Amino acid sequence: MLPNLGAPAWVMPLMIRLLALGLPVAFFLAWAFEITPQGIKRHTAADGKDSGKSGLQRLDVATLVGVVFIVVIVGYQQFQNVSSGTRSVSAAAASIAVLAFENLSPDPSNAYFAEGISEEILNVLAGINGLRVASRTSAFSFAGRGTSVPEIGLLLGVRHVLEGSVRKQGKDVRITAQLIDADTDTHLWSKTYDRKLIDIFKVQEEIALAITDALMGTLGMRQVAVDQLTADLEAYEMFLEARTLFYERDVEAMERAISILESVVERDSEFAEAWSLLGATLAVSRGYSQFGEAELERRTRAAGEAAARALALDLQQAMAVAVQAQVLGDNQVLRSIELTDQAARMAPNDAGLQMWAGNQRLIAGGYLEETLPLLQRAYTLDPLVGINNGMLGCAYLAAGQRELGYQHIRRATELGWPHAQPVMIVNQLRLGDVDAAAESVRAMFPEGDPESWDWFTRNSFSVEDRVVRGKLTADGLAEIEASVEAGGTQLFLAWHYMALGDIDRMFGEAFSTPEFYDLFFRLAFSPAGRAIVEDPRFIELGQQHHYLPVWQTKGYPMGCLRTQDEIGDHLSCPSWPE
Predict the structure, then answer these.
(1) What tens digit of pLDDT does each residue of 116-173 get?
(2) Residue 163 pairs with which residues in a beta bridge?
(3) In this structure, is the dihedral angle defined by the CA atoms of residues 373, 522, 307 and 259, taken in order, positive or negative?
(4) Left (φ > 0), alpha (ψ -120 to 50) or beta: where does 96 sit?
(5) Burial of 412 (0-12, 13-18, 19+ CB in 10 A)
(6) Helix (H) or strand (E) holding 14
């Protein structure tokens, strides 16, 4: 009954575990006591004749032992699932991954259309209460790789996989979709839809309804409805192309997406999704090119205006809310956190929004009770995305779960996001494990790829490898700092000085390179960062980045206390994680 009552997916597993824990207690009480006309009495006292029941008592004891044994085994399995590190979460019955549909159109350029239809179906399913849907980035990463469905299910932690193809020719479209049980690799449902392009939204609804029908026993009754985003089908096709370009996170692709979306909203000014995506693309594009101050201001203003337009048309545009958080001024960090949290609540199945909210809270003050659930959810939804692993690894480190943190940070590097490695390296050095730190440096610079092993990479690797091996002192690093930077090698030297134990130069770098604030605070909120956080200059740095109002409202970072003593105004952190 719970799914039909709209209960969250976690309620049923919790009830089962509580009942399992209570069963041995209830079983013992039923075995040991009886209800008699004189009240509740011990079993032997109620009967007074033991001999006739000795066989039953032995059976009772054997059954009780068996039940306890089963509960212990189930409990151990549950614990293993929870504490399994980087292993994908166990697949819930109500879970699905939508793979990128194959493009069978005569025109290869229609690949974006096939991918867009897949994502539209994914988004519809993500809105169904009780159904966990793997995020786009992880699910679409299997395109063209020939990975088996059972392996996809294991890697993404899902029970079902939807795959299909799209053939578009003129105004006609054929969509074939099939739902597969990932555990058994058997087809649960398959259908081909031949439609006119004008019926594209109806087809998406039909497919979603067919999937919920196939999962009726798990989900219960579900109402699925797909709104027509726009009546201009050409604008809709352009929107799908722009969204695909946005996910490429490439400078040229981003600029092309902006141009297309500006044309889309010119054609249909009521297209809320297009306005929302335009705002997101403008906001994100600021970090992919070296724009002048005037252009940065223009893009920031345009992103905010596009997000406001999207929300004026549809208050449920979660991405637009997140964009509003991104374009706020530096002195509005607390409001930015509130808006990002709001966006994450509006779209609980959007891994990107969960990650943004979790990362923002981690950097703002290491608020782990709020940070960890958000980053764990982002990872569960999108386990094959490097940044999700890296952020979660940093949060685990901040919580003192060193090995679990290291596992996720290494996985992030494998997936192409090495930016959490410095946090792990500094903590490895803190424990005196120089060999492990040197190995972590090597993992950041894949020498086997000639394109990545250029002059820049060689110089970066040389500096970092010598730092962790103790072959370069803080004085030596300071001497070559100017020449390294003049050569175009952009190193965040604060973490190098932190690794070398030179706190003074580390703070100097942190104050002079504020653009690297996110890495600095991830370093600070780790077991190796206590000396940084307790230094009076840390409060000054917090003021520079406008975090002080956050700390005064939500509490000081990592549970530390603000104190005044002989060294000045600083934080005291007696409960720092080891």
Answers:
(1) 888 888 888 888 777 888 888 889 889 888 899 999 999 998 999 999 999 988 888 8
(2) 178
(3) negative
(4) beta
(5) buried
(6) helix 11-32
Q: Max Cα separation, the chain?
A: 96
Instruction: Give the C-alpha distances (Å, rounded to integers) separating 255 from 234, 288, 329, 403, 474.
Output: 20, 10, 24, 41, 42
Helix 272-285 with 233-248: angle, nearest 10 deg: 20
68: exposed, middle or buried (C-beta count within 10 Å: 0-12, 13-18, 19+)? middle
Strand 39-42 and strand 33-36: the pairing is: antiparallel
> Which residues have C-beta within 8 Å of that of residue 161, sequence separation ≥ 6?
96, 97, 99, 149, 152, 153, 179, 180, 182
Region 307-312: mean pLDDT is 96
Tell me how far apart the alpha carbons of residues 125 and 138 are, in angstroms, rounded to a whole number.
16
Distances (CA, A) of 84 to 80, 218, 408: 6, 25, 11
Each residue's pLDDT tens digit, 407-458: 999 999 999 888 899 999 999 999 999 999 999 998 888 765 556 556 567 7
Per the listing, tokens 């000639």 go with 450
Residue 409 and residue 414: Cα distance in Å, rounded? 9
**Any idea where the domains of the chain sit in the sequence?**
3-82, 92-219, 233-327, 369-572
Tokens, residue 31? 């075995």
Residues 383 and 381: their CA atoms lie apart, in Å, by 6
Tokens representing 162? 């939807």
Question: From CA 573, how far away is CA 327, in angstroms rounded?
Answer: 33
pLDDT at 565 over 60: yes
Burial track 135-153 (b if 16+ CB lie within 10 A, e otherwise): bbbbbbbbbeeeeebeebb
CATH node for 233-327: 1.25.40.10
Tell me which CATH code domain 92-219 carries: 3.40.50.10610
